Amino acid sequence: MTEGILLASSDTVDMIKGLFKYEVFGQEVWITTSHVCILIVWLSLVIFSIIANRKLKHATEVPDTFQSILELIVGLLDSVVEGSMGKHAPVFANWICTIFCFILVSNLSGLVGLRPPTADYGTTLALALITFVCIHVVKVRHQSAKDIWIDKCSPLPPWLPIWLPINVISDIAVPISMSLRLFANVLSGTIIMGLVYGLLGKFALVWPAALHVYFDIFSGAIQTYVFCMLTMTYITQSYGDS
To answer: Which stretch is the leader sequence (predicted)?
Structure first.
């Protein structure tokens, strides 16, 4: 395997590169390698979704290989969401499956020479902030102001809100911890692979494939699962009935 054109080069290991810039209201805005890689991942998922949609519209009783793979993927994702969120699964099943596919494909994109979009903190923070908004929207819609206040003051009585600042900080830390966990794990693998290809050059031909298996496939899949599980856990808890 050779180093991809969008992967970090040896002289700027894992640095995000600006490709071109334009002005918006007098401010310079850069299109970077992260934007390009996100676009490639997004287009890949859109094309796959269109093909899968057309295939399932003409599904047969005896499925072929592609239809079997689609049914297996959908069945596994639905079962994971239902097992974690219970009766609330139908509301968030599409969102969880979407971020699962996006994060997984982003993490695996290093196999084809791209710089994983999840190695950019702006990407992981945006995903975590969406989860953060979902958590508190659900909490406001399904819990009374009294219940929220009691929860924020726990474990002490609500008339003694000593723990209120700590609990508020704990809530704010949720998107930060989720985004940093995903970002740091993917970034570390990207930096290591960038160093391997940068230092060894043409000698890095076959054996780095083992490192790709770990950093891109194994670690990438694990981090995708962890992010989605945390998302489902936090949202389910915000209903206040579990």
So the answer is: none
